[in-house]
Every structure is written in C-alpha cells, then in structure tokens.
Amino acid sequence: MSSIAKKKGFGASLWDYLTTVDHKKIAILYLAAGGLFFVIGGIEAMLIRIQLAKPDNDFVSAGLFNEIITMHGTTMIFLAAMPLLFAFMNAVMPLQIGARDVAFPFLNALGFWLFLFGGLFLNLSWFMGGAPDAGWTSYASLSLASEGHGVDFYALGLQVSGAGTYIAGINFLVTIINMRAPGMTYMRMPLFTWTTFVASALILFAFPPLTVGLFFLIFDRMFGGNFFDHTMGGNTIIWEHLFWIFGHPEVYILILPAFGIFSEIFSLFSRKRLFGYSSMVFATVLIGFLGFMVWAHHMFTVGLGPTANAIFSVATMAIAVPTGMKIFNWLLTIWGGSIKVTVPMLYALGFIPSFVAGGVTGIMQAAAPLDYQLHDSYFIVAHFHYVIVGGVVLAILAAVHLYWPLMFNQMLSEKLGKWTFWFFFIGFHCTFFIQHFLGLMGMPRRVFTFGADQGWDTFNLISSLGAILMAIGVIILVVNVIITIVKNEKVGNDPWGDGRTLEWAIPQPIPFYNFKQTPLVRGLDTFWIEKQEGNKEGMTYAEPLSDIHMPNGSIIPLVMSFGLFVASFGALYNGEKDWAIPVLVLGLAITFASMAIRSIKDDHGFHVHKEDILKNEGGNK
Amino acid sequence: MDFNTKYTPQSWPDHPEQVTLEGKNKFLGFWLFLAGETVLFSSLFATYLALKNKGPSGMEFSTQTLFELPLVFVMTMILLTSSLTSVYAMYHMKNHNFKGMQTWLAITVILGIAFLCLEIYEFNHYVHLGFTYGQSAFSTAFFTLVGTHGLHVAIGLGWIILLLIRNAKRGFSLYNAPKYYTASLYWHFIDVVWVFIFTVVYLMGVVG
Amino acid sequence: MSHDAHVYSKSQTEYEYTRRVRREAMRGQVTTFAIMIFLTLIAFSAVAAGFSEYFIVPILLLLAAIQVVLQLYYFMHMSEKNHGMAAFFLYSGAILGFTLFLTFLTIVWWN
C-alpha cells in the first residue's frame, strides 16, 4: 500500500471511509454523523417551541408532542453531543500525546459504526409506527405502559449505540495510558487529553448500568420479564437507580471534554500558560469521582427518605467546589494575557457566565427541600439547558471553529463565525433564561400546551422567538461550512499562530501516520517551548527515521454493527411476527461470524518504508 | 523482531503477552473491560438481591425451597478446577511448550462444557417445576443474573475453542500469545463471578 | 513500534533458573487452588450444617472475598508488577459495585 495520497474517484473514497481505521477519518465520520443528528434534534426542538409559542395550540397533537420531546432529548444527548465530542477526541487527542493512532484502530471504527446503526435504528421509529414517547429518561412505569414499538426502538437503539460508546471509552483510556510519546508524562498532558481520559473512565463505569437497565427494559417489554412490574413482585425504582447511575456521570462525560476544549482555548488565545494546571487536573479527577456519588439527586421526590436525600444533597453541592476552581483558573488565565478575541475565544468568554448561571441553579436544586418545589417544572428545563447548551454545545461550536483547520486544513470564516455566535448566544439566553421564571410560575415540564388564562403566554412566546435566533445561528454555521469547503483554501499548520500543543506542530495535511518520527515532549505546551527556542520544525524527535507500522483498514466493523442492527428488528417484533426470531438469529449470526472472521484472519498491518516517508515529506513541501 | 519470528524456549520472552505494543494494549484494554464487567455484574447482583423472593402474592417458590446444593457444589468444583487448568495452560505458554498449553486448554474447555451442561439441566429443571422466566420478578432476576454468567461461559468457550483450532498447526508467536493470555484472564474472571453467584445466590439463598 | 524490541536468547543457566522459578510459582498456584477448594468446602458445609443465619452470612461473604483475592492475585497475576492501572480501575469498579449493592439493599423503596 502506497502512502502517497492520489486523487481518488467517488467510489474509492466512499470505500475508503467505510473501511477506514484511521482516527482522523473516523473523527470526520463522527463529526458528519453527529452533525446530522444535531440538526435532526434541532428541528425537533423547533417543533416543540412552535407548539408552545401560543396557548391552546394544536400544531402537533399531545401524543406526537411526547414523541418529539423524547426524541429531542435522546437524540441530542446520545446521538449529537457525545459523538460530536468523540469527533474532537479522535481528531485531537492522539495528536496531542504524540501517538500514530489510537490503541485499537479496529475497535475505533467498530465504535463509530455501532453508534451510527444504533442512531439510525432509533430514528427509524418515526417511519415504523411511532417514536418512543416516555421521555428520554423512559421511567419504567411509563415506558412499560407505552403502546406500540416506540420504547422498543429506544431500548434497542440505545443498547447498540451504547455498546459503541463503551468501546470508544476503553479505547481512549488505553491510548492515553500506553501510547504517550516519550516525555509526555501525565502531568504534561494537555487539558483536553486529561478531560478525555477522565470522561472515558466515566464511560467505562457508567455504561454498564445503562446496559443492564436497557436489557431489563427489553426483557420486560419483549421477552416476558418482570423486573419493573409490581404485580409480579418487580420494582420500578430499580430502573430509576440504574438510569441515573448512568445518567448523572453522563452529564460529566459531556461537560468534562467541554471544559478541556475551553481550557485549550483560554490558554491559546490569551497566549499564556493555563493558570493552575495541576489544580485543573485535580479538579477534573475530583469531578469525575464525585460524579458517581450524586445520582440520587434526580430522585429526591421519589421518597428515598431524609437520610438518603441529605447525603446526596451534600455530595451534590460538593461538586461546586472543583467546578468553581476551574472557573477561577480560567479567569486567571485570561487575566493579564494578550487576548485575541477570535470566534473560539468568543464562545469561551460567553461560556463562563452562561455556565455559572447553570451551575448556580444546580446548587439551588441540590437542596432537597427546594427541589420538591422545582421538580418537574420548567425551572429544571432551564437549568439543564444552561449547563448543556451553555456548556457543552458552546464548547462543540467553539471546537468546530478551533479544530476545523486541524481536521480539514481550511479555516472557517471568522466573520460568519461571529454572526453565528451572536445569533446563537443571544437566542440561547432569550430561550432559556425566561424559562426559569416560567418554572417558578408553575409551568410543568413535558406538557404539550397551556391555557391562555394561566399567564404564561408572553414568556413562552419570547422563549420561542429565542429558539428562532438559535436556529438562524446554526444555519449561518452550515452556510459557513459549505462556503469554506467549496473555497478550499489551504492554511497549513498552526493557523491561529499561537498553537501551544503538539497537534499544531504537525505539518498539514497530516500524513496518515501522524508523526514521521515520534516526538520528544520537553514540557507542558511542548510546541510553544520549541517555538520559543526557535526550532523551525516545531518538534524535537525521540527516534531516528525508520519504518512505521500501521494497521490495515477493514469492512468488518461495519458488517458487525449491521448484524446487530438486523438482530434489533428481530427482537423488536418478537412474539408478534413469525419472522422475528429467525431475523434475530440471522442478525446475531452475522455479528458473531464477522467476529470469528476477525479472530481467524491474521491482520498484521503493514509497514510504511522510510523511503516512502521521505518522498511523502518532499511531496508536501 | 516481527510477528512471524520463530522462538526457541531460550529466546521466548518472560512475558510474551506484553512484548509488542499491540500486546500491551490488549492486556490493559482487557483489564479495563473486566473493570466494566465488574460494574455490569454488580448491577445484576444488586437487582437480584432487591428482587429476591419477590413475586405475585402467594408465590410458592423461594430460594429455600428451590435450590439444591449438591448440584451447585459439583458445578463449583468443576469451574474452580477449570480455573486451575487454565493456569497450567499459561504456565506452559511461558515455558514455550505449545502442546502442553493446548492440552490444558482443551481440558479447560471440556470442564467448561460440563459446567454449561449442568447449568442447562438446572434451568430446565426449574422451568419444569413451573419456575419459568416470566413467573415472577424473582425468577426473572435469577435467570438473568445466572444466565448472563452462563452466556459468558459460552462465549469464553467459543473463544478458546476458536483459538485452539486456529493456532493448532502454528505454534507460538507474539501475535497469538496476547490472545491466549486475555482468553485465560476472561476465564478466571468468569470464575470470580461464579464465586459470588454460589455465595450470594445459592448459599445465602438456602440460609435465608 | 512492534519491531523495536530485540530477540534476546537466555544462556543455559539463566534458562534453567527461570524454569525453576516458574515451576516453584506453579507449585504455589496449586497450593492456592487447594486453599480455594478448602474454602469452598467450608462454605458449603457451614450451610449444610445449618448454623444461625447471622453467623453464617458474614462468614460466607468473608470466604468469598478471600477466594476472589486469591483468584485475582495468583491466578490472574495481579500481584506481578505492571498491573497498577488494571488494579486501579478494577477497584474503582468494585467500589462503585459495592455502592450499588448498598443502594439496592436500602433505598429501592420497598415499603
């Protein structure tokens, strides 16, 4: 296999992406698929806001409204936010630690295809008899009573895509532990790598309970189980515990990488070393640990008793301490810096007040007695949109602008980027700030409409107008992306001019083996150090030029995931259609057969020869 | 040194599973997977304990009337012994004795199959008593917990058999050593889970 | 990456020495196995003997814990070096698992 990229036809490029195990290409796949689901989830959000724009609206029916809110939440969390963050983890993390690929390139591809097929399966529910309608939390009493196949689609689809996430988590952990370049000690890792590490550890421990919970739901609904049916001795609270033991760490799986992205941005565009690096690392680990000890704060009103409520209340408030440390460290990074207000920096500056607002309302809800008042009201909706949109989505949008040049060797337009930011940012506060007051005025979540005499119409209208501003912001971003791709102006490495970490030091376009020689890391912000010392290459090397061992591409991950996709249909129609069990068996057979082929067929990868690397180098200059 | 290098007992490394980067990654990745499995089985155990003996009112089945210890004792002995045989297999792997390793793994497989047959017999017996999967929350939780362990045994057997057949004529290499090693780790982990099952489900069930 | 390790051939003495060390370690493994069988026997016979529940349950759990530690540290070689990360993650998982037990035995809201 030659290392030199040639102009390829459409079929060949498509095949290349279907079989790729290259982390940079998988990152692009995650970005595209996550972006698609983000748009779908966004359209669902718009439908919600149109329905709620005026009282007694009949734009959608009550049943359809339930399906829309369920799919909006599920899609945004599982199919948009996480995959988009995975896109940046894949694209950036191996480069930041000086690795040629992730630890398990094959599993990396498998994780992506599982996610994609799970997501497609879940969204097919729209065309196959109705989407899930029991809320994204799918509480058992409600989901067992839900008619049709919607909740089945939810359970099976999330099971498949959850398996993909779990695999990705293990993969990132092993990559960071085993594949750091010489000199890249733990305490020299960039913050984005650190947050990826902790988020992956959370995935490792949070997804098994979700898997178990979803299996229980599948067994109860499709195979005659009794986990949650109280007439048979079951217990519906078990689902709530399992869901939130997963669900709360999930929030940190999302927000920690977002913190990582903002840490990179603050340091990059303040042109200063990150303030309090070691305390940032400590805070990240502490948040990860505490994240597992607070899940029952979602269940204060279940009636767990005052002791349990008090314990979880205190633990929840404790998380504010490491988070506060981070906020102050970011402020002190900006302090006295030579600040460049680029688009990513704008998002970072907008993030701090937005996220702090979300954190403060979080502390309010952590107080169990107050939570009894706020529970299930729009105050909760406002709170979690402030942390998820104000934290995670702003980080994703910032990262799209920040890492676009790294992933595509092009620069998104700064001008259009600023338009996107202002529309989105103003629209976001307009939509959700007012929802705090709607909650305090008593408007419950998940209602499909409200009466004109309840006094909520003006605030709801304002909220809906804000949502339109956000949509305009996203449309401008899409236009920006299209224009940039069509223009296709190459920008080379370190386009921001102030790159501090290894990923900016690699020549563009990044060769598929990333580093022709493994770099030697000489400190935190290693590229910055090399630049300060006038090193034109930007890297000191730890080894002489020699042959590079790389993995082969493979179609098997796609086939393996497709097998589970097929099997899911079999499970879904179990006991209803004659072909259900044969299809289930067929799907599992495809998956296990492809696993066996993967195991039997030796795959030693291939070597890129020294001469080719040198030739490649010449070609790029 | 390559994956195809042939080794003698003298040149065979002390930790053949961790010489190559691929081997190191597999080794660590598999341990992390086992850490995740720990949480998975903890969830199943916790659910079982919460639903133990719970069923529709007037349910005749309980842990005390249902379980028979002699069968469980035999199953436990078989699985513990299979754990030792796979230790022997790894001992021979480190000594670069391919035949020895294959033989001991084959014995492990036979013991595993025996265990699985007994488990199927046990489940079948319960179903004939009327203790079916959907009989009560207790039965659902019991079959799911013990059945998930049984599924792990079956997957482990398939994996080891595949390794035995695939490498029968090839001998050791640094490519397959990590595979053998992780398969044996998996087998030991199955045993760890079983220790908790026979203690928490069966013994503590009979006690009350 | 994979090709930068070098083949090293042991001298005869060195080779015999490692063989002996391994043989002794294997003998230790067999002893471990004997202990595990013994612990299992105690557990089963304690239940068969029908002692009080409050006496037996803690003992059963203790025996199980010992057996798992033996399995992990000897059969799965966790006592050898290079297992730091593995142990860290396994114990983290175990602690979370224990929290789950505790939760499901106390606050699943039965009454």
TrEMBL record, chain A:
Q: What class of enzyme is it?
A: translocase
Alphabetically, the GO molecular function entries are: cytochrome-c oxidase activity; heme binding; metal ion binding
- BP terms from Gene Ontology: aerobic respiration; electron transport coupled proton transport; respiratory electron transport chain
Q: Which GO terms describe its cellular component?
A: plasma membrane
Q: Where in the cell is it found?
A: Cell membrane
* Positions of transmembrane segments: 27-48, 68-92, 104-128, 153-179, 191-219, 242-262, 274-298, 310-332, 344-364, 384-407, 419-441, 461-486, 555-573, 579-597
Cite the annotated pathway: Energy metabolism; oxidative phosphorylation
Q: Which InterPro entries match?
A: Cyt_c_oxase-like_su1_dom, Cyt_c_oxase-like_su1_sf, Cyt_C_Oxase_1, Cyt_c_Oxase_su1_BS
Q: Which UniProt keywords apply?
A: Cell membrane, Copper, Electron transport, Heme, Iron, Membrane, Metal-binding, Respiratory chain, Translocase, Transmembrane, Transmembrane helix, Transport
Its Enzyme Commission number(s) read 7.1.1.9
> Which part of the chain is the Cytochrome oxidase subunit I profile domain?
9-522
Q: Which domain of life is it from?
A: Bacteria
User: Topology with regard to the membrane?
Assistant: Multi-pass membrane protein
Q: What is this protein called?
A: Cytochrome c oxidase subunit 1
Q: From which organism does this entry originate?
A: Psychrobacillus insolitus
Automatic annotation (TrEMBL), chain B:
The lineage's top-level taxon is Bacteria
Q: Which UniProt keywords apply?
A: Cell membrane, Membrane, Transmembrane, Transmembrane helix
- Single GO cellular component annotation? plasma membrane
Membrane topology listed for this record: Multi-pass membrane protein
Q: Which InterPro entries match?
A: Cyt_c/ubiquinol_Oxase_su3, Cyt_c_oxidase-like_su3, Cyt_c_oxidase_su3-like_sf, Cyt_c_oxidase_su3_a-hlx, Ubiquinol_oxase_su3_dom
The transmembrane segments are 28-51, 71-91, 103-121, 141-165, 185-205
Q: Which organism is it from?
A: Psychrobacillus insolitus
| Molecular-function GO term, any one | cytochrome-c oxidase activity
Family to which this protein belongs: Belongs to the cytochrome c oxidase subunit 3 family.
Protein name in the entry: Cytochrome c oxidase subunit 3
Sorted alphabetically, the Gene Ontology BP terms of this entry are: aerobic electron transport chain
- Which SUPFAM superfamilies does the record match to this protein? Cytochrome c oxidase subunit III-like
The record ties this protein, via Pfam families, to:
COX3 (PF00510)
Locations listed in the record: Cell membrane
The record places domain Heme-copper oxidase subunit III family profile at 1-206
The protein's predominant localisation is membrane
Whether Chaperone counts among this entry's keywords is no
From TrEMBL, chain C:
The record's InterPro entries line, in alphabetical order, gives: Cyt_c_oxidase_su4_bacillaceae, Cyt_c_oxidase_su4_prok
Membrane topology label: Multi-pass membrane protein
Q: Which organism is it from?
A: Psychrobacillus insolitus
Parts of the chain that traverse the membrane: 30-49, 55-76, 88-110
UniProt keywords (A-Z) are: Cell membrane, Membrane, Transmembrane, Transmembrane helix
Q: Where in the cell is it found?
A: Cell membrane
Q: Name one Pfam family in it.
A: COX4_pro
Q: NCBIfam families under this entry?
A: CoxD_Bacillus
Gene Ontology cellular-component terms for this entry are: plasma membrane
Its recorded name reads: Cytochrome c oxidase subunit 4
Q: What top-level branch of life does the organism fall under? A: Bacteria
